[in-house]
């Protein structure tokens, strides 16, 4: 659908984001009638935003409130708005559309600044040293501000998260992986049809996220994927199949990067602090489409700090609005008929565990805060004793499918070591089952819900990863490089893929409605009750597509 000769609704939504950011607005979204005004300009936006009463109000009511703008929240907001519902989205991170001093939205990985980390004074990485030589923690100090990458640390586990309008899609490696059938059959409640997930919701989410794959001929010829070709060849020699993977990065753009006709992003070391080009993050897809309905309003830098339920049955959230330095600008409450929790596995679970412990939502059941997993994630770097090339694509394109010592599925993706030199090494993130799961407890003193992840919970995933890569190493004469992980063969205390905390079918109904609380829904990766053994973004979007379809059917 177009509103004039040149702009689709998605493009119009993207323009709303861009112009809103230029104005430094605390709230972004335009009413439907503004569609007829064509491309939004600073002037039209400023005029229309004066009609947004938010800044002036101390408390307010909205019909549908979505907390968080990651995969679950964005899918939910778009589908509600397409059915004519007004939707308000709250996001604790920034709206990433304002260029910094270097003229770019996102900072460079090797010259990080106040855009890099979420209120930390130095960058954090899953690797303790670069190649066993340079300690990463001492390397790069950054100003403390509302940056894009957060690390939530608890005993034995560091969870990496994206902060901003678009959630994890802003910082992730854009892999869009459909999990193995045996995994979904094992972990989902039997009332959820796995067939329907594969037939309807995975394809729908993949299309919505603009999933695509690298062109085989380009992959084979590219200097930037040599490391992946070496890794795949070594796996194949050990009898382990490899495949190219679906990605939310625009592979046609990547080809142009290598040809030198467009600015480099994935091929220019960009990734974990955001991609200035090429990536179809949520702000370019679901969120742009949602804004394009004219019914969605997004409030960045606005965190939900608690949830309660009023006597009339409405949900009431307390919010804190900050600026990029962390100064609190306002605290308000917002009430709503329907509350959709899309703060991610950590964010949503922390809110609900706190609500149960402090008595603001006393009927939450004992499953809230349980079945948390790291997706069995294990990091490793191997010396492969052959050239892997000096150039690397930070956005990966290949992975392998293997079996561990108990014949359980292991999936591993090849990732880059973007140092600009030939390291003769390959790096991998392996995903597998986590028989020992985590849970959350509430600490009254700090007023925080804290992840409890046992020191032995990493043992089985580590053994699984070793089963696969010991074999690959033996066949190819390769070895683990321990220097990257403080003397260990693998990195076992971090994850990019937090899952669970509000397990579907236990803490919620099988469409995500929180048990004991009609009208309050969990929409995000906290629903998955176990490892997905696949990168979770696509599954999170697919599950949100499934659930919101059923929620809307019940609303009508
Ligand atoms: C470095 C990195 C690489 C990754 N690579 C991949 C990959 O290649 N493929 C893949 O599938 N997955 C990847 N992931 C994981 C993927 O991004 C997440 O699984 C996914 O984003 C989860 O979606 P979600 O909707 O559950 O939550 P999120 O996308 O995390 O979104 C939650 C949003 O809610 C906001 N929020 C949280 N609490 C509150 C609150 N109280 N108030 C207001 N806002 C709040 C957060 O700031 C965030 O923006 C990666 C993650 C990282 C960190």
Description:
- The protein contains 13 helices and 22 strands.
- The longest helix has 19 residues, at 537-555.
- By secondary structure, it is α+β, with helices and mostly antiparallel strands.
- It has a domain at 9-97 and 281-372 and 501-555: FAD/NAD(P)-binding domain, CATH 3.50.50.
- Bound molecules: flavin-adenine dinucleotide.
- Flavin-adenine dinucleotide is lined by residues 67-73, 90-93, 160-164, 167-168, 171-175, 272, 303-304, 342-345, 347, 351, 496-497, 524-525, 535-538, 540.
- Flavin-adenine dinucleotide (FAD) binds at residues 67-73, 90-93, 160-164, 167-168, 171-175, 272, 303-304, 342-345, 347, 351, 496-497, 524-525, 535-538, 540.
Tally of contiguous helical segments: 13
How far apart are the termini? 25 Å
Q: What structural category do the secondary elements indicate?
A: alpha+beta
Q: Into which percent range does the helicity of residues fall?
A: 25-40%
CATH superfamily of the domain at 9-97 and 281-372 and 501-555: FAD/NAD(P)-binding domain
Name the bound molecules.
Answer: flavin-adenine dinucleotide
> Would you state the CATH class of the domain at 9-97 and 281-372 and 501-555?
Alpha Beta
Based on CA atoms alone, the radius of gyration comes out at 23 Å
Task: Output the keywords.
FAD/NAD(P)-binding domain, six-stranded antiparallel sheet, 556 residues, seven-stranded mixed sheet, binds flavin-adenine dinucleotide, 26% helix, 21% strand, alpha+beta
Q: In summary, what is this structure?
A:
With 556 residues, the chain is of the alpha+beta class. The protein contains 13 helices and 22 strands.
């Amino acid at each position: 659908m177009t509103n004039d000769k040149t702009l689709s609704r998605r493009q119009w939504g993207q323009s709303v984001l861009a112009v809103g950011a230029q104005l430094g607005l605390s709230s972004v979204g335009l009413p439907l009638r503004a569609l007829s005004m064509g491309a939004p300009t600073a002037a039209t936006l400023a005029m229309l935003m004066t009609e947004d009463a938010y800044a002036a109000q101390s408390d307010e009511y909205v019909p549908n409130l979505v907390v968080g703008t990651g995969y679950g929240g964005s899918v939910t907001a778009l589908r509600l708005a397409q059915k004519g519902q007004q939707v308000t989205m709250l996001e604790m991170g920034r709206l990433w559309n304002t260029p910094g001093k270097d003229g770019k939205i996102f900072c460079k990985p090797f010259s990080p600044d106040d855009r890099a980390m979420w209120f930390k004074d130095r960058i954090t990485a899953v690797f303790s040293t670069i190649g066993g030589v340079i300690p990463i923690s001492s390397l790069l100090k950054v100003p403390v501000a509302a940056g894009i990458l957060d690390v939530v640390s608890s005993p034995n586990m560091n969870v990496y998260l994206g902060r901003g309008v678009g959630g994890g899609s802003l910082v992730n490696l854009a892999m869009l992986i459909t999990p193995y059938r045996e995994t979904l059959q094992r972990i989902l409640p039997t009332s959820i049809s796995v067939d329907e997930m594969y037939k309807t919701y995975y394809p729908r989410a993949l299309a919505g996220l603009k999933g695509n794959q690298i062109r085989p001929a380009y992959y084979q010829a590219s200097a930037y994927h040599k490391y992946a070709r070496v890794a795949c060849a070594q796996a194949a020699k050990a009898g382990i199949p490899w495949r190219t993977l679906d990605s939310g990065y625009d592979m046609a753009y990547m080809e142009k990067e290598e040809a030198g006709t467009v600015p480099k992003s994935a091929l220019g070391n960009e990734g974990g602090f955001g991609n200035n080009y090429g990536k179809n993050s949520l702000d370019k897809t679901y969120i742009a489409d949602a804004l394009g309905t004219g019914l969605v309003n997004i409030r960045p830098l606005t965190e939900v700090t608690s949830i309660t339920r009023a006597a009339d049955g409405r949900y009431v959230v307390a919010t804190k609005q900050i600026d990029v330095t962390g100064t609190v600008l306002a605290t308000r409450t917002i009430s709503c008929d329907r509350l959709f929790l899309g703060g991610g596995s950590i964010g949503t679970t922390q809110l609900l565990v706190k609500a149960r412990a402090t008595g603001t939502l006393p009927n939450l059941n004992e499953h809230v805060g349980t079945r948390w997993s790291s997706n069995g994630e294990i990091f490793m770097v191997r010396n492969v004793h052959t050239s892997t090339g000096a150039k690397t694509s930070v956005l990966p394109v290949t992975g392998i499918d293997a079996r561990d010592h108990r014949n359980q599925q292991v999936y591993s993706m090849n990732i880059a070591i973007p140092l600009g030199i030939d390291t003769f090494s390959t790096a991998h993130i392996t995903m597998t089952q986590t028989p020992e799961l985590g849970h959350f407890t509430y600490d009254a003193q700090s007023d925080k819900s804290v992840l409890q992840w046992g020191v032995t919970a990493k043992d089985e995933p580590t053994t699984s990863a070793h089963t696969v890569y010991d074999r690959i190493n033996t066949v190819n004469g390769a070895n683990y490089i321990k220097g990257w992980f403080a003397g260990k063969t693998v990195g076992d205390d971090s994850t990019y893929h937090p899952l669970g905390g509000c397990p579907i079918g236990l803490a919620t109904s099988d469409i995500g409605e929180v048990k004991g609380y009609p009208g309050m829904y969990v929409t995000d990766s906290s629903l998955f009750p176990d490892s997905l053994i696949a990168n979770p973004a696509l599954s999170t979007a697919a599950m949100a597509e499934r659930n919101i379809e059923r929620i809307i059917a019940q609303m009508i």
